[in-house]
Amino acid sequence: MYIEIDSKKYWVEQEGRGEPLVLLHGFTGLTKTWSPFIQQWSKNFHVISIDLPGHGKTKAYEPFSIETVCDDIYKIMNRLDLDNIHLLGYSMGGRTALSFACLYPQCVESLILESSSPGLKTVDEQENRRKWDEKLAIKLENEGLFSFVSYWTNIPLFETQKHLPKQIQNQLKQERLSHNAKGLAASLRYMGTGSQPSWWNQLEKLTFKVLLITGELDEKFTALNREMVNLLPNGEHQLIKDAGHAIHVEEPQIFGKIVSDFILHK
Ligand SMILES: C=C(O[C@H]1C=C[C@H](C(=O)CCC(=O)O)[C@@H](C(=O)O)[C@@H]1O)C(=O)O
């Protein structure tokens, strides 16, 4: 279904009954990212998946920011009459979920972050990252989606995905190719890692349960999350053996159970 927020149209999918579990995909992902888990999770939860701006069926091309997207998610929650949500985000979706949790902590029952971060600590790091994301956005606009997806699929962060069955790799590639260059470029410019606030100093204020999940082969985000968990009053970090950045793709059985058990307090 579409939910109109001001001039934007957010694509939102819902399944199941119970406590609300809101799912936010990563860069180049979409609601379909979560398809393998919906049947399992919707047995116990009211699962809500949202296409973030620049992705999937959501139509929101004017300038936005991670803060304005969080404001929109808050409005979507109100439209759906949702109270305290369990919020799960992967990578960019995790940065968005953590941003929402810092801006609207009263709305969050629990937070699950897969391979994500609170942003960059210094202004220099943010500026340098904005330049990197801008170069990527220009690459997208100049070379087109197919060329960008070929590049993106081959960045070192996703090296572990090369060991996945070809069918899974192709499915991922088709998901990335289902977008358009303009939307992904907007996402890089307006919701890139360098464009968001740093939430590092807010982590200690988050009193609800927070589960951090990283793959042991994803050294960068595992190191970041080891630092994050020490700042969270009610946090835990699960390290997934032999997995890289996209644990939900590489170890779906383990990932699906970890999320269910965490929310059900098992
Ligand atoms: C390459 C880096 O940053 C990117 C890595 C992951 C994020 C993401 O959402 C990727 C999802 C996917 O393609 O599976 C992305 C983001 O957070 O926006 C980052 O740009 C890095 O080394 O930080």
From TrEMBL:
Pathway as given in its UniProt record: Quinol/quinone metabolism; 1,4-dihydroxy-2-naphthoate biosynthesis; 1,4-dihydroxy-2-naphthoate from chorismate: step 3/7; Quinol/quinone metabolism; menaquinone biosynthesis
Presence of keyword Lipid metabolism: no
One GO molecular-function entry: 2-succinyl-6-hydroxy-2,4-cyclohexadiene-1-carboxylate synthase activity
GO biological process: menaquinone biosynthetic process
Pfam families: Abhydrolase_1
SUPFAM superfamilies in the cross-refs: alpha/beta-Hydrolases (SSF53474)
Keyword Cell inner membrane applies: no
Family (UniProt): Belongs to the AB hydrolase superfamily. MenH family.
Cross-referenced NCBIfam families: menH_SHCHC
Protein name: Putative 2-succinyl-6-hydroxy-2,4-cyclohexadiene-1-carboxylate synthase
